[in-house]
Every structure is written in C-alpha cells, then in structure tokens.
Amino acid sequence: MVEMFQRSGNSLTTLPMFWFRVVGYAYLCELTLREISTTIGLNVQGLDIAELLAGSSQELPAIRIEQAAGIFLAIYEADL
What we know:
This protein has 4 helices and no strands. The protein starts with a helix and ends with a helix. The longest helix is centred in the middle third of the chain and has 25 residues, at 16-40. It is globular, with a radius of gyration of 14 Å. By secondary structure, it is an all-alpha fold.
C-alpha cells in the first residue's frame, strides 16, 4: 500500500477505485457512529459523499457517484 500511495504522488484521490473504497469506508463509519452517538453523547457531522467522490483527480463513472450512498448503505445493512 505504501508503494501504491507513493506512485500516486501521495494523493489517494488519484486512484479512483481506491478513493471510492476509502469514501465508502468513511461513510460506513459515519453510519455506525450515528447509530451509537446518542448512547455516548456524540454529535456526528454528515459526509457529502458526492463532493468527496467528485474530488477524485480522475473521473469515476457517473452512475457510481450518483448511486454511491445507496451502494454503501446496502453494504451497511447487509450485516456482513
């Protein structure tokens, strides 16, 4: 992973599919925090998934950006 990061010019946004996964992981973390936030008194700020994915220096397929939240939510609800 270190080599991949170095080859990308030290910017994860230059690797579109990896960036998609990072944003997805962050969104799943947000959903988990929202679920437990009232119990522990945490205020969770929302992520703008479309904005984060649009920040990739290489274009992601538009359908993925538009459907990203649904894809990530389906993974979250699958209880894997």
